[in-house]
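Changelog note: in this version the structure field was regenerated for every chain. One regenerated record is shown below for reference.
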Amino acid sequence: MLRLYYNLAKKSTLVALLGIFMFSTTVQARVPSDPDYLKQQKMWQQIGAEKAWDYSVGSKQVTVAIVDTGADIWHDDLKNNIWTNPYEIPDNDYDDDGNGLTDDVHGWNFIENNNNVRTSVLDNTDDPEAIRHGTIIAGLIGASGNNGKSGVGLNWQIKLMPLRAIASDGSGSYEQVARAVRYAIDNGADVISLSVVGMNDDDYLKQILREAYDKGIVVVAAAGNDQQSGNGNLSNTRHFPVCMDGDSADNWILGVSSVDENDKLSRFANYGNCVDLVAPGQNIFSTQRYAPVYGFNEEFSGPWQGTSFAVPLVAGSAALLKSIRPDWSAKDIINNLLKNSDDIQTNNSQFSNEMGFGRLNIGRSAENASNGSQITSFLPKEKYYFKDTAVFTKHDGSNYFFASTGDVPVLTLASARSLNNKSDEVFALVKRGKYYYVQFFTELGRRWQEKAIPTTDYSAKKIPKSIKIVNDSEQRKIQVEFSEIIVKKGKKNTAKISSKQYDWLNQN
């Protein structure tokens, strides 16, 4: 029986974790060697994942925020892909990055208000399904590939940012979800996965999700599992946050529902004008919260079902496209996924125009992203310069604003052609507090990455002064030059110049 969690609380508009349930039935492209992949293969083949992996298996430069019950960040198949806050020093009991959260090294727990994002298993009144929920989703988005463990995620390499905004009984408030979304925005997420549903609208959550989209983040939300209870038509009975863009001319939330292995709308799955895409949501196998002492004995299992698990397939697809096209905006990625979906209307005649654009096809989407024309910009490319926290470009005697580094002044700039040699990339050396970073900007002026220069490479007397892009054995690297003050008796201080190359541009 389908379950949703509609617990009530004073002064709190609740969202509910989508019910998940398990059944006892068993159920020429790039294929991973992971031992449990065969349990997942039909699902991945249905959306063209094996073809997509010929173009990309993901990138550690792409971050997906999972707003859910937390995740098992110690899981053998997830731990190498867990996001780490570059501005926070682990376990020093100090808020290094000044965001008001102490030691938020791998995300934040907005339920218990601490840095433990690993879903608790200690309270025997909690729901086992809710405890597993976030880890299942994390595995579908980004379980490590070809590592000889469990199954595989759509992105074999990625950064997974687990944000615990739903309690282990399956309930949470819009306020907690909004705080998690704010954290994702502030910490560089490229995609936000939301497998939660509530029956009431919320202006603040709507505002902050729109802000995420406007800043280039793809927001993916579940349609819900109410068809069998009679509330499954979202055109008549709106659910949230999936329907929060329903009155907007822009399609800024990707609403996702579920189909079975034969591309038929799942019997439990919602439909209607808030749905943009459908994806497999039945016979799903993935990673699970592992704690055998407390009865959670399996690291990988299934089959699961629910629109909860169609969401990470779409969110993971958005992340995979971002790895291929880091210059693409949220709108570009959404449009690509929609226009390259498969028309399955003939399989669902009773749901005419109620299932969005069709069933996800990441294979075709990845091919289109790899072979499609580059996005062009009117911004001239001849010269980049900076003043304080702003970067400008100059062309034909006119100055144009290009980008902002945020709250940190620029120390120096470098620019180069991108990896595909068809667009510009701009790099800024900045200093935040006593630490140095290199910020990466696309041709369109969007900051899409930031790398910290290791503190072991500089000191009070040896500081980064300039950056440039160099070719080393036909690979592009960032070279940082350091100026070191040398004090000699009887002589004035002299400066010694040294340099070090970083392989940041070649990391996937």
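Spot check on this record: The longest strand covers residues 475-486. Confidence is low (pLDDT under 50) at residues 1-13, 20-28, 373-382.
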